[in-house]
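Working notes for the structural subgroup meeting. M.R. asked for a predicted model of this chain before we commit to crystallization trials. I am recording the input and output together here so anyone reviewing the notebook later can reproduce the run.

Input as submitted:
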Amino acid sequence: MPRAAGMNLHLLGLIPDLGGASFIDRLADNAACVAALVKPGRSQDDASTRLRSCPLRQDDAAAYRAIERFVVAVPRLSDRAWLRTLADPRHRALTFERWPLNPSTDSDLLSLYVDPFAVNGIIPASTGLRDSRDGTLPSCSAKGGFIKVTWTTEPGRPKEVAKWNVEILPSEDYYGPETDFDVDLPHKSPKGTLRACKLTINLDSEDVERAPKTVVVRIQALDRNGQVLRLADGELAQATSQEFLLDATPPSESTTVRRESASSLPIARLRAVLAGAEAETESSEGWQESDLAYLQLRFSRSHASRLALSIPLRELEARNPST
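Returned structure, recorded in token form:
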């Protein structure tokens, strides 16, 4: 009975497995391999690239190359007919119990989430996004714009995170799970110690037309083998940002926000009003230290200021929050 159940896993969208009752222990890896091959983060990835995203060891060269030869020969991996092909007796050497699985790396990562773009209801220019006036999604220029994301983990310094995979993807909530856009969207792999990444988007006019309009940024925690780690609850260590739009509007030539020092908060507010900013939209972007400690303030997307304080006084204030 277990052997028959494993052979018919293709009916459930999984790779046939003839390893007996132990196929149940491999179901999570089976599903991960199918997802990487059928629905990769970037639909333009070729078969070999998709296979490298599977949780497989490449040191078992014979087994890995046999699998690679098979998937490379599949005309369209997103068409799951190849799963049924693996149930054919001619392909018994490629059923899932023979795939050289890479044991998952233990990590103490409990949670991972992408920080919201807005700060106190305002989307800072530093995110690269343009805030909408009509309540629609914020937008980013696909012709020379950028998107900057930050993320938070628990604990703050998780073990075994060698690097991150940061990529722009079509929104699954908007387009559904089966998305296929023939355009290369930006991605990076920053070091595991980082918690921020900036992706520059510079598509030509033809690619802009083919690109998805509603997108997200996905963050994945990767181990030293480039495999996605799992959280303590067994879920994949990945998170997506809020949705935003890609459009063909070139970025503004002047994207630098004016930031001047002020001796006091009232002076900073007055200068903002005189510059045409809406002072009631004031928000704080935190402290930065240089020669002095500077409290970064923003009054609109186009006007910012900072208040200077000596570093010893700033440290004293931090020790006495009631003052």
